[in-house]
Amino acid sequence: MKKSVIIMGGGMAGLCAGAILAKRGHPVTLFEKQDKTGGYVTGFHRDEFYFDATGSFLAACLKGSEFYAIFSELGIEDKLDFLPIPRIRNIYPTYELNLDYRNPAAYVDALKEKFPEYEGKLAAYAELTRKLGQEFLQFEKAPLWKKCLLPFFYPTLFKCAQHSHAAILRHFFGANDEIQHGLSALPTTLPPTKLSYIFVAVLWAKVLKDGVFYPRGGMIRLTDMLAQSLVDHGGVIHRDSGVETITTRKGAVENIITSDGRTHRADWYIGALNPYRGQSMLTGGAKLYGKMFDLDRYTVSPSAMLFYLGIKKSTLPPDWPYFVSLHTGLNPEQETEAIEQGHSDEGMHLVITTPSLLDPTLAPDGFHSMKILVHAPRSSLCKDQASAESIRVLQEKVFKAISEKTDLTLADNVVLNLSATPAALQQRTGNEEGSMYGFDAAMGQVGPRRPPNQTRIKNLLWVGHYTRPAHGIVGSSLSGSFAANIITEREDDA
Ligand SMILES: Cc1cc2nc3c(=O)[nH]c(=O)nc-3n(C[C@H](O)[C@H](O)[C@H](O)COP(=O)(O)OP(=O)(O)OC[C@H]3O[C@@H](n4cnc5c(N)ncnc54)[C@H](O)[C@@H]3O)c2cc1C
Q1: Which fold has domain 5-81+217-298+438-493?
Q2: Residue 424: pLDDT above 70?
């Protein structure tokens, strides 16, 4: 009999770990606090419209990629249809880029056209980023002796590992803000001075290399398929069943207690939720991590405000793409600093997605479902953001910014209007202050500095976007698969 596993939390990370382990023959029981699984990766229907609750795109979805490999191992890859997101429109305060986005170099190519005088420097930036990403991938698989000789075998990694993205951008482009803007459009809430350059390079090499995708049927399809796979392989999911206590004894988890007061035991435990919450559930003063990965030294990412809109088809300009990103602020550093202080006076970053353009079944005939994501302060920084009046004021500001920069007029053309605040994200998923990405990809929070999946407690692993390898749907899913592999390897060793 294979070792039994309890999973705490049913977002992408917990579901991936659970589905893989169930497929490998382990008795798996997953406890989810909410009445549905998925965490951030879910969706909902209202008046025949479908809306994704949070995320808008996926990466690493082609055969051979790590994300695809999870579904392939589960034998459900044919049940998912990853639609390529063909075009991305990025609007900056002084110009815009329309990208045929097949890989991250699309940004470099578009910028070369826009700023021909920087063609050579853009090529050099692209080459360095490519090289660093490749070296990092090789380093990951290298034997320990080779890792110890880092400067000899991985000179680019050795040279660039500690740099922020800003340092590299400054090196190539000096004070050219326009190019810095163009190359900073990555799935993180960080400005270049805080963003780790190595994270950018790994994204290029590993995650965004084949472009970005949207699952036909909406994001909910991913987590529904994973939950189904877990159950099909004999696993059990308890919804509406939050974990409240993790009892430890002699450095191991003895059992967990759920919100109905019941006690559950297994050989292995996997935490797939906010680790600060996890830490507070541990009995006897046990700690998830030691000094090196002390949770107090990390910062969580900012949050988001979301507007879910049903709009008339006729409202949408004819060439409107699925994905539009709009920056209103001139300075990403000041914009982020303002968000860190609890306001968005220095500008906004909006991500406008229209899933029914890719999959028409997601909205009724004659209409589109649209989501507008606005980067926003963490919930505790902006206590009044949940009031109906402040939501209305922000929405007006958002609609105005869109109509000033594009041909899209939303005011008076919306037939369904719903929203979610950072506090709602926090309440629904338990994420620290409604943070979008758990720990963001700041310097000192990526790669080996991110909390590992093995905690200090021997039969307790931790997964999700606060842990290795990274944040995002793909990063969290991979953390789940890493935990499954740890259990499999230990079982093989025993
Ligand atoms: C607005 C927004 C937009 C985003 N856009 C994208 C995007 O386009 N692409 C991308 O790759 N990533 C995106 N992300 C990030 C991505 O969604 C997350 O990084 C990822 O989904 C995190 O998954 P997870 O499993 O680690 O955590 P979560 O999704 O937070 O799952 C944790 C689960 O644990 C459950 N739980 C909490 N407490 C308990 C308890 N006590 N007992 C039992 N269960 C519990 C929660 O209910 C939840 O289901 C976005 C995030 C947000 C918020």
Answers
A1: FAD/NAD(P)-binding domain (3.50.50)
A2: yes
